């Protein structure tokens, strides 16, 4: 099947789409404050009239290109496009300030290539196994799976569970808009006929992610050209290679399994990779940590890109997005009337395996593009900020209007853009809202189906062993942040109670 996928991906037109995807993804991903999720959301309307197989080959390129581009911004500007790039910025920018920007960019690019290639190979092995398991899922199991996605993403991708659940509620509300397919009743449409079919997932993705993020970042940046560290062609010396190859492999080992877990994301493996490399550092590496150690760039970047391939396992096999970018990819599938899951592998094998094969091709293209063209990508950063964010707003509006030539879509886009800005402004994560909007209708349909089969008996939701385990994991995902907060508070009280008498604060009885 993978060989057949290569026969699809290696056609001249699909190679062109792959090249366009990795170039556009890197170009937009390099821009400050724009991560892979926003990159895919912004470019989603462009592929509206492209054949599905070619579109997803292009999306795969955009996805990986955005991951590559984010490291350039982190290293040269100390401006991570997303939270998983924070560790890269931590050591990478210090390397750049020491005159080692070329080495930092090179280890990020090569590490991303190696991690992405290994992780894509693991995706090839893991996906069919998960599909065989998912075939046994019933309506109650799918509902429990959606609940697990809701709770995991809400608790992991936000600073507090309450804010994550609030964001999820916003997404579920948006998902209810339109005609109820089972009763024929209109819901939350305000009598506007254009809303009877609901709000297109592309509009939600572009509005909340691209437009909201652009407004938020633009409101916090001063006008003018940022200070960019000059960089030549990316290269690595012999000592850099010897110090980087082990962190690349360890980062891959961290990234892929965490990426495949609901709510695992890329943040945890990048932090684990950084902590592991810091603990294992010896000699020169130990002295350089905190001042620009190459291991602190190599490991987290490998973990970041390996987790990107890991997120495709639950997305393609279960239709379960476990990250913000995966949620946008799911919106892309729904744009073409496709539902990821076990049936996708049976009904559209050329599309799925062509997309997976294109990941290998796109990875190679990105390595070829990023090493010699690092100075070119660095010059992109000199675009004046007012032009940059005005351009994002313009192209977002143009792409959304082109979907149905509807002025209502434009109004909805700007309303969602302001909502996305407000959510960022008050600390509500955007990813749970998008996942709630996409998975909410599916969860509702599966819940109704399960209750109809059991003639209203609610116990059907926990009688299946799979559903019971998934709901238990969902409850655990909600409880873990509270348990952590409680143990941390108790530890602080214990340490305060054990404070020696001569060290007690003045005035304490």
The largest β sheet comes out as: 2 strands, antiparallel
Our Rg estimate from Cα atoms comes to: 23 Å
Query: How many distinct folded domains?
Result: 1
**How much of the residues is beta strand, in percent?**
under 5%
Give the overall shape, derived from the CA principal axes.
Answer: globular
Regions with little confidence, pLDDT below 50 for 5+ residues: 499-509
Number of strands: 2
Q: What is the number of helical segments per DSSP (H or I, 4+ residues)?
A: 22
Pairing-aware structural class of the strands and helices?
A: mainly alpha
Q: What is the averaged pLDDT score?
A: 80
Spatial order of the strands forming the largest sheet: 1-2
Helix/strand order? HHHHHHHHEEHHHHHHHHHHHHHH
Percent range of helical residues: over 70%
Q: Note the gap between the termini.
A: 74 Å
Write up this protein.
- The chain crosses the membrane at residues 12-34, 104-127, 133-153, 160-179, 199-218, 312-333, 353-374, 386-404, 460-483.
- Residues 15-435 form the DUF112 domain.
- InterPro entries: DUF112_TM.
- Keywords: Membrane, Transmembrane, Transmembrane helix.
- It is a single chain.
- 73% of the residues lie in helices and 1% in strands.
- By secondary structure, the protein is mainly alpha-helical.
- The chain has one domain (2-490).
- The chain has a two-stranded antiparallel sheet.
- α3 (36-43) runs parallel beside α14 and α6 runs parallel beside α10 (238-260).
- It is globular and about 70 Å long.
- The protein starts with a helix and ends in a 12-residue tail after the last helix.
- The model is unreliable at 499-509 (pLDDT under 50).
